[in-house]
Every structure is written in C-alpha cells, then in structure tokens.
Amino acid sequence: MARVGLSTERLVRAGAELADEIGFEQVTASELARRFDVKVASLYSHVKNSQDLKTRITLFALEELADRAADAIAGRAGKDALVAFANVYRDYEREHPGRAAAARMRLDPRTAAASAGVRHAQMTRAILRGYELTEPDATHAVRLLGSVFHGYASLESAGGFSHSAPDSEETWTRILDALDALLRNWPTASTP
Amino acid sequence: MARVGLSTERLVRAGAELADEIGFEQVTASELARRFDVKVASLYSHVKNSQDLKTRITLFALEELADRAADAIAGRAGKDALVAFANVYRDYEREHPGRAAAARMRLDPRTAAASAGVRHAQMTRAILRGYELTEPDATHAVRLLGSVFHGYASLESAGGFSHSAPDSEETWTRILDALDALLRNWPTASTP
DNA sequence: TGCATTTACCTAAAGCATTTAGGCAAATGC
DNA sequence: GCATTTGCCTAAATGCTTTAGGTAAATGCA
Description:
The structure is a homodimer of 192-residue chains.
Chain A: H1 8-22, H2 29-36, H3 40-43, H4 50-73, H5 78-95, H6 97-103, H7 109-113, H8 117-127, H9 137-157, H10 168-184
Helix pairs in contact in A: 1-4, 1-6, 4-5, 4-6, 4-8, 5-6, 5-9
Chain A binds a DNA duplex (30 and 30 nucleotides) through residues 1-6, 28-31, 38-42, 44-46, 49-50.
InterPro entries (chains A, B): Homeodomain-like_sf, HTH_TetR, MT1864/Rv1816-like_C, Tet_transcr_reg_TetR-rel_C_sf
Organism (chains A, B): Streptomyces cyaneochromogenes
DNA-binding region (chains A, B): 28-47
C-alpha cells in the first residue's frame, strides 16, 4: 500500500483548490479523498471531521487574503490605499471564488477571534489613518467598509450585476470614489 | 393511513419556519418530513428535490421581504424612506434569520430574473428618487445600497460586530446617516 | 543491519440524507 | 356506488460521514 503523503496542510490546500473548481459548498471529504486516490476514512487521521476540514479551508483563505491585503497597502495611504485594499478582495473573488466563499463562511466566535479575520479589521482601520476619523466613527467606518466589500463580492459572484449596464467594473470604481468622498467628509451627526 | 394534507405551499412555509429555527443550511427533506410526521418520499410529490425545496424557500423569503419593503416605503421619501427601507432588511434578519439566509442564497440567473429580487432593485431605485441622481450614478448607488444591506446583515448575523464597542445598533444608525449624506452629495468624477 | 514502534492508509460497518419505483387506500367526480 | 385520481406508503439503491480495528510502510534506535 503506497503512501500518498497526506497531511492536514495538504488536505486543506487541496480542499481550497477543489473549492475554486467546484464551489465551496460542494467540497466533501469523499471528493477530496477521490482526488488523492485514497479511501475516505484515511482523511480522518488528518482532520477531525468534515466541518473541521471546511473550517480549516476558511482559515487558510482568510490568511491568504490578509497576506495579499497587507502587501497591497504597504507603502500606500489615503485613497490609494483604499483602492488597493478593496481591489484585493474583488480580485480574490475572481481568482479564487471557492476560497472567497470559504472566507465568508460563518465561524464560531472563538475560532473567528483567533483567525486572520482580526488582521482584516486591523488593516481596514489602518486604511482610515489616511482620513480624519476619530472613535467611534472610525469603527463605524470599518464596519461600513467591511459590509461593502463583503456584500459587493457576494452579490457580484452571484451574478447580481451581470447582463445589465453599466458594467460591474465601472460601478466598482465609482463606489470606491464614493467611499473615498464619504470618508473624507464623514457626517458628524444625524441629519434629518 | 391518515392524510396530513401536504402541499408545495405548506412545505415551503414550514421549511421557512424550520430555517429560522435551525438555520437554512440545516433544512433537509428528512427533517421537514419528520416535522409533518410523514415519510420522506412523500415530499417528492410536492417538490422536485431537495434543491427545489431550498429554492422555493428562497423565493418565498424574497417575496415576503419585498412585501415588507413595499409597505415600509409607501408614503415616505428621502432619508425617511431610506431608513425605513434599510430597517426592513435588518429587522427581517433578526426576526427571521433562516429566511434571511435563504434570501441570500445564490439562484441561477433565470430563476433570479423571475424572482422578487427584481422588485427589490426597483424599490431601491425608487428610494433614490428622493436624491438627485441621474444614470448611471443611480445604478451605481443601487448596487452600493444592495451591497451594504446585504453585507451588513450577513456580517452582523455572523456575529462580526458583537462583543465590541460601539454596539451594532449605533453603527447601523451612523451608516444610514453616512449613506444619506453620500447620496445627497454623490461625487461626480474620480477625485484622486 | 535488525527489530520495535509509530504512522499512514486500509477494510468493514453503521447511520443518515436523497431519490426513484411501485403499491394501496383515501378523496373526488360522475 | 363505482371509477379515477391523488396522497402517502414501503422498498431499495446510492452516496456522504464517521468510528473501530487491522496491516504494512516508515522511522528510530541498538
């Protein structure tokens, strides 16, 4: 019985690739075992169960995404940083749709708190250094940006903006313009 | 053999309730059959398959949500309409988390085009009548609002904003203030 | 090198969800 | 009151998940 050389690491990476190919929801232990030409039960020495596998793929995607974002914002500030940062999310969605879907998966609070998710929030806050926001407005803005990036990627990948003018590319640019303008001129109080 | 009185309609409604109780992802034909105290195979006279059931729950949720939104914006305009409209989404998420998750499920393009999803887009556009936006800016703004509502609900339900100050309620209010300000002052061109 | 231990993958089996085929009894229509 | 339709059934195949226990390959140490 030849050994294939399974490991948690290899399973997670292969799982991420599989997600990009067939969709994150479709990633199963069975399919993954098939890819490695191995019996399903063999995976259970490396991952606790199917849920554990998916969680690890999510954590992997969050890390990868955070690394890319960190690269993108290094040496940039203001709108330049905002655009570079935002484009990381959008590009990741296009390049790795399965991993991006994984990155949107709900994690239990403890796992989430120990994930690269916190790096994402920190980087978003760093972007805001280029704008003059003080607490608690900075936090509100972090949450707004997170919502927009998350929501836009999700809707766009669901095909929400395709087959209608103007094209999604154009909208994305204009949304970033709008967010930049908003951050430079964040309203201080409710204006009914 | 007593007849329970299954129908597609009843299955979908019960499926929606089940989703709110145990989560949309956890809704299965088996669990639904259990609720009706009926054998699983019996469901297959009323829905094509498990995917069909989920799709119908999604369509149902989209309709219900669109009806609520229509009620909310009737007789309102400007920021008043924007806030009422946005709150429908947020309240629905809290009141019916499973249905809200269903409403976020990816539909195939043909099904989506025939769904209440188009009403949502139309209503969002109607909201913008209170602001002075011309095409293509109105479309960009529709997409931005969709992204924010979608993204915020998704992140909030995933617990993204809990256990940290300021509370989510406060952020939501301030985000709506910000969106209102942005729509009243939508940037016309790129401002580097 | 030779043997013991650990490790990696295996077979077997049970549990549960999905789906189809075919049957019987209850409801419906004439 | 009988024929037809309809609703729910049983039975069975398929596939994914998970655990238990076995065997052979790799590793380590004398």
